[in-house]
Amino acid sequence: MSITRRLFVSGLAITAVLPTVRAAQAQEKGLIAIITPSHDNPFFKAEAVGAEARAKELGYETLVLVHDDDPNKQSQMFDTAIARGAQAIILDNAGADATVAPVQRAKDAGIPSFLIDREIKESGIAVSQIVSNNYQGAQLGAEEFVMLMGEEGPYVELLGREADTNAGIRSAGYHDIIDQYPDLEMVAQQSANWSQTEGYAKMETILQANPGIKGVICGNDTMAMGAWAALEAAGRTEVIVVGFDGSNDVRDSILNGGIKATVLQPAYRQAQLAVEQADQYLQTGSTGQPEKQLMDCVLINEENAARLETFALADAATN
């Protein structure tokens, strides 16, 4: 019946047959598992959406899982991916140390892993580790922060999760710039674990103990949003806040005169690149790239925030 209709009504037949063809192609190429932290954080949601979209474009089925930064849950998800016969795993991991064993387990089962955003502490186990150049990005953010602070005054730093290597790298990048200015004094430094709720609570407590603070520099945008909400609630909207990630929420805050700046790391493109490398590796046995790859970050402030959308910066309009 399909062939007859195709001969006489080709346009309609193609429309009818395409979904079946795509499904068959996906079954033929197999399954790609995509494992990230919670999608409550728009950064991680953008990773999952980007990876899933690219995998489907390339003809794969997808399995999208969330580990909530729980190493035990992540380990179970690797077992699921292995049991389902995944062709590859795209991963934003739940800890630099805790992730080594499941990635090795997948490798032993013949399933290559392609890491994004966060590195693990071993080389030669994952095929790719594609991460933002967190140190370079942190230096961009710190330079902007120093300028906004006028090179002086008391400030606070909110750190990410201690088990996440990105938290330490960003903090080091911040301080390698800020510490060059002796009139900038850090009066508090606490972890808010990448969380907006914790960012709010920590900022509220720090503000009570240090009412004279002039600025807050944060390891990610969700903590920056929490800190800004606490400052707004306290009537302290003159305090300078800088984040890191390039989320739409912080973009909107910048455009509304709230948070002053953030640093964009290209989550969506990074995830798509991992899928493309997985596809190339599955087809040819090589990605053509080194295991560890860095993607540079971009400063976002009032000058370019309007061009930011879902962790990607649109090209400036040209006349």
UniProtKB/TrEMBL annotation:
Family annotation (Pfam families): Peripla_BP_4 (PF13407)
Keyword Signal: yes
Signal peptide: none
Record-level Gene Ontology MF annotations: carbohydrate binding
Top-rank lineage group of the source organism: Bacteria
Keywords carried by this UniProt record: Signal
Main subcellular localisation: other
Gene3D superfamilies attached to this UniProt entry: 3.40.50.2300
GO cellular component: cell envelope
Subcellular localization, as worded in the UniProt entry: Cell envelope
Record domain Periplasmic binding protein: where: 32-283
Homology family: Belongs to the bacterial solute-binding protein 2 family.
Name under which the protein is recorded: Erythritol transport system substrate-binding protein
Organism: Sagittula marina
